[in-house]
Structure formats: C-alpha cells, structure tokens
Amino acid sequence: MVEFEFTAEQRALREVARDVCTRSSPEAEVRRLMGTPEGFDRAVWRRLGSDVGLLGLAVPEEHGGAGAGLVELALLAEETGRTLLGGPLLGTVALAVPALLVGGDAALAAELLPSVLDGSTVLALAATDDRGGWAPAQPSVTADGGTLTGGQAHVLDGAAADALLVLAAGEHGPALYLVDGDAPGLTREVQSGLDLTRRQARLRFDGVPARPAGSAADAADAVATARRTAAVVLAAAAVGSAQRLLDSAVEHARTRLQFGRPIGSFQAVKHRCADMLVDVEHARSAAYHAAWAADEGTDDPGLAADLATVVTTEAHLRVARGTVQVHGGIGFTWEHPTHLHYKRAVSDAALLGGRAAAAARLADAVLEPA
C-alpha cells in the first residue's frame, strides 16, 4: 500500500511551479544573482507570491494562505532545488512563517502575513547563537527594556530581510521579538559560504528596538515547529537538486563517446548511474513521507523530518559526487553547473543543526527506548 498518491491538483501545481522556476532561473541567471548583494530577484519573488500564489501554500486560509499542506510546499521546494532558484523560501516561508503562526500573537500575524505571502516583505527567523548553533537553550541575544543586545551568526536570509523574528533571552525565558530590518543599532553582514545561491548573515544588536512577538511559553514550540517544517522543505529541495544532477549525468553518459562508444555502455558507469537513481528515489520517498506525516499526523512528524534529513543529505552528497565522476574533468570546473549543486549538497548537510544532530535525535527517539 502507498501512503498517498499525488492528486490531479498537486500534479498541476508541480507543472506550474516547474514552469515558473525553469523560466525564472536558468543557469546564467543563477550565476548572475550569485554576485548580487541579496542573491535573489525580488521581482521574481513577488511573482511567486502575488501572481502565482505559491508562497502561502501551507498557510491556513484564515491567515490568507491557500490552506493546502506541506506536501504542496514540498512540491514547490523540489522545483526550486532543481533550478537553484534564488529566494528566501527556506528562511521566510519554511522558518519564519511557521514560527509566527505558532509563537506569534494573532494581531502580529494579521499585520505581517499579507505582505509576506504576496512576496513584498521578506521575514527571517533569527534563532541561532553567535557561533551559528541552531536554537540554543540560552540565546546569545538578550532583551532588556524593549531593546536587544548581542549577536547571531548564519541566519538564513538575514541580510535581505525586511523584518526579523529574533529569539532572545527575556525576563521570563527565551522569546521571539520583532525587529525592523532598518532598525537603529542593527548591523547585518553577509557571511561567505560554500553555497552562494543561499545567503546567510551575521547579525549584531546594539540596543536595537524590538517588540515582543509572542510569549516565552510558546517560543520553544514555535522554533521547533519552524525547524521541523524547514527540514522537510530542505529535504524536498535536495531531491530536486539530486534529480537534476542525475539527469545531467545520464545525459552525459548517453552522449559522451570514448573508444567509439557512449561511456554509458561501460559497466562501471552503468552501475554508478543505477546507484544514483536508487539514492534519488530513496530520498524522494523519505522527503514526501515527512511532508505527508506533518499533514496527516499519523506518523511522528519530528521523527519523519529527522529521517528525511539524514536520508536526503547523504543521498544528495552521493549523487553530487557521482555526477562529478561521470562528467570526468569538466565536472570539477567553475564553468560546469555540477559544482553549483555539489556545493548546495555540502551546505545543506550543515543547515538547521546538520545531519549529525538529526541522526542523534533519531537515535535518542528510537534506540534509547529500545
């Protein structure tokens, strides 16, 4: 038995997302945006929101979203991963919006979400410490008298954000605070990283004015929900990237001749491509199982998300290495697109605490009780 089959509406959604991503993110445009300060085209981002309505797929209708689910958002993420479409899908849609819905007050959500979902406002969740560690028990930013002081590192889409949801230590424990992107005392610096298609930033708060975004009692749940949602989106995007790599490797094996015959006719290359196909399908199953578990609630969503993280990051890395090998010398060059996806695979393995943290949570949940 299968858990679910994609509906006609979901298949149509995939086609729409694929068309928009393919037209908006050819390789030349990806490379151009890598050299810009924000790393993405705001006009394209607004088109995804206001024109196509894809940014609110997993947001309930009462908050202005489409009222669909994480499976639909995963379909969009897979297509953005396939084309390396620049934009704050992970930082805004997968992290900040779930945190706001779970941990923010209703008035704040009503104020922010319309402009976030139509693509005109970029909202980022700053929930790391000053070394980039995800969701610390003791935040490195403190709230005192309506201002924030401290620093955070490796904040996804933090440099381009118009507003920030900041996890800070308050009087009653860690809580979320809203900070304007142009607030006095806020310093933002783009951090250099391996993957230039997904930006991270270092933030410094020097008496930055902030307003409470929710109670301390809800902050931990909000950040945990955001991480779990983002892990599924990250896994689905990895599937799209891995599929693009596999397609590239197979096409090269079909057309590259050696000793008068396609290299794909040699057993070693055949086996490598077959192993890559197994990895991609394994990753796809894990990613969509996690999305389905979050929507249906029949399986443990946290367990499914951690499983998807471990499976997809390892599969993505293996497929990326295999694609480099199939392409031979050109697979290592800057001019070839393989290295863009390879760097994405390496970078993905370290985000949101990384695959090691996900594997440790799986061990604690499964092995310790046994």
Q: How many beta-strand segments?
A: 10
Shape: globular
**Order of helices and strands, N to C?**
HHHHHHEEEEEEEEHEEHHHH
User: How large is the share of residues in beta strands?
Assistant: 5-15%
Strands of the biggest beta sheet: in what spatial order? 1-4-5-8
Could you say which structural class the secondary elements and strand pairing correspond to? alpha+beta
Which percent bin holds the helix content? 40-55%
Number of helical elements: 11
- Rg to the nearest angstrom? 21 Å
Report the end-to-end length measured between terminal Cα atoms.
Answer: 27 Å
Report the biggest beta sheet as strand number plus sense, adding barrel if it closes.
Answer: 4 strands, mixed
| Low-confidence residue ranges | none
What is the typical, i.e. mean, pLDDT? Answer: 95
Description:
This protein has 370 residues and is an alpha+beta fold. It has eleven helices and ten strands. It has helices at 8-24, 27-34, 42-51, 70-83, 89-103, 106-117, 216-255, 267-296, 301-327, 338-348, 354-367; strands at 123-126, 141-144, 147-156, 163-170, 173-180, 186-190, 200-209, 211-212, 257-258, 261-262. A hairpin with a 2-residue loop joins β4 (163-170) and β5. The mean pLDDT is 95.
Summarize the structure.
This protein has helices spanning 8-24, 27-34, 42-51, 70-83, 89-103, 106-117, 216-255, 267-296, 301-327, 338-348, 354-367, and strands at 123-126, 141-144, 147-156, 163-170, 173-180, 186-190, 200-209, 211-212, 257-258, 261-262.
